[in-house]
């Protein structure tokens, strides 16, 4: 089955996976999403016997269908090698009755290494497949982790340059030092006045600037992205959720088919969205629990149905989560709205123009209706009825942030 990609805002024809990776962002400002979520086609008892690299191939081949087996395996083997300090790549450990997936064994000790170790290989392979002659300029906004991991991944990769924008006073001192000391003749880093949302918004504006695009093309350059808005960043993140579940089965901690809950601290919503895609592929996940810091725009959205970025930006000790515009949420909105690109575009325009949008009863899609019902009943039910209704809906809706789930 060939999986193609289209924009969440619907103004672009479908493209192949390699072209979606090259473009990074759709020309209408939307994010590329698969036309359908493929199902895992390997039994869990077989996945439980596989290495991380083997698991990565079985998952990624379902999404990146225009990559040949040789191309994809070459990307995977060049990414997940001695750069990681453990052969397991993503070990799973138990503590206090919970299992923790260790995603910090890469070169920069950030979970972003899991995807940014392979993205340069996917990008250069995609360029060859599509006979791209231009040099690819990677534009990336970072709140801390992505910047160093992206620069390390693309350092001295032929045919590429990378420019990272970060909030000058919005990352940790060690993260800033990691970025400004990065070696590589093709790496550039810029500290801006503002926060991560300002950097990310500016990057998206550059992507959508047609005059700038023409000027770059004339000079032999074209833009792409290393942020999780690039589907080439998101797909590799699905892998470690499948690998974690397979590890639990292999270790005898759970039985094949037994559901698990997944808790993900999130800022730009990419990591937890990858878990959602894994669930849609058939991974037995019961609940996805979205954890926020004091910049709790996502927490408030899942409690009220209104996404409101018009609030004070709080600098915390977890700068990678200091985000008020969670770009990857757009991919979830598109999916739970039944793939209605027009509705999705309207909501994103409301966010851009007015700083907020609200999910209402008339938005199509089963998950969207469940969210609206949950929110409506919270507002209008008495406490004793509310708890019962919340409980029944929590079991069906995967992104609840009520006290029962948290």
Q: What low-confidence regions span 5 or more consecutive residues with pLDDT below 50?
A: 381-406
Q: What's the overall geometry? A: globular
Helix content: 40-55%
Question: Alpha-carbon distance between the termini?
Answer: 38 Å
Please identify the structural class as seen in this structure: alpha/beta
Summarize, please.
The chain is α/β, with parallel strands linked by helices and 406 residues long.
Question: Could you explain the architecture of this structure?
Answer:
The chain has 406 residues and is of the alpha/beta class. It is 44% helix and 15% strand. The chain contains 17 helices and 12 strands. It has a 4-stranded parallel sheet with strand order 7-6-5-8. A two-stranded antiparallel ribbon has the order 1-2. A hairpin with a 2-residue loop joins strand 3 (92-95) and strand 4 (98-101). Helix 11 (231-250) crosses helix 12. The chain is globular. The protein starts with a strand and ends in a 12-residue tail after the last helix.
